[in-house]
Amino acid sequence: MGDGDGWANCEAGHRHWGRYGAAGVLAYCMDPDPYILLQKRSRLSIGGGTWGLLGGARHSHENPVEAALREASEESTLDPATVHVQWLSREDHGGWSYDTVIGRLPSRADIRPQSFESAAVAWVPAGEVASQKLFPAFAEAWTRLYRSLYQMVLVVDVANVMGSRADGWWRDRRGAAERLRDEIVAIDGFEDVPGAVADLCYPEIVLVVEGAARGVGDVEGAEVVAAPGSGDDTIAELAAPRTPDEQRLVVTADRELRARCETAGATVVGPRWLLEAIRRSCST
């Protein structure tokens, strides 16, 4: 029992499990089409006999991702380290919320029940999920959640973003690029991603540097690509999605580069979007 185990009432007067809210994991893998990892709830659980997501109550010290992965590992043999977290989708009931953490696994691993709450755990083709006997709340959310089964790759035109800030970056281009890299990596989930249904995005981050900024290294959470020539050419090459469940979001204000990236299949957003995300991150 943790401090989050217990009942709570939302502003609508409904009773929910989880004193500090609840969270679950929507884990999927491509094989080659998407398969969804579902839990069949035991008869001793709320909604016994229905299929839904591994998850449960948040504790007071946990963020939603931590809670969802912990609950999933308690209810099944799922290894949290194998889940590549991509999105977080929140249902706010007023005073109580449920967070769905959406993440990809590299394969359909053999995952089994591990607590009294799980009668079974199974990989189900995404096209067959709606035909199962689903837990009512998951059934209502499934169509929306299905639209978030993809990985976002954020490709940043570092020179262009630095050029949009009047902070003296030109005096030390490499140092300014390193600061920008560290600010981006520190963002705990990106909001207002163009075209997204979910509330927060946890993208793969690729930073493209050129000129005097070459030599900036990778850090945990971000890959740095040094353009051998034109930074625009390298960014345009990186704009094309690599897998069917991937989308790429390029950050640049360069009009010509924007057109090239959109032709390659990427969505493009201006530096203001990224700088606003940094500002929010720094203010929390």
From TrEMBL:
<dbReference type="InterPro" id="IPR000086">
    <property type="entry name" value="NUDIX_hydrolase_dom"/>
</dbReference>
<keyword id="KW-0378">Hydrolase</keyword>
<feature type="domain" description="Nudix hydrolase">
    <location>
        <begin position="18"/>
        <end position="151"/>
    </location>
</feature>
<dbReference type="InterPro" id="IPR020084">
    <property type="entry name" value="NUDIX_hydrolase_CS"/>
</dbReference>
<protein>
    <submittedName>
        <fullName>NUDIX domain-containing protein</fullName>
    </submittedName>
</protein>
<dbReference type="InterPro" id="IPR015797">
    <property type="entry name" value="NUDIX_hydrolase-like_dom_sf"/>
</dbReference>
<dbReference type="Pfam" id="PF00293">
    <property type="entry name" value="NUDIX"/>
</dbReference>
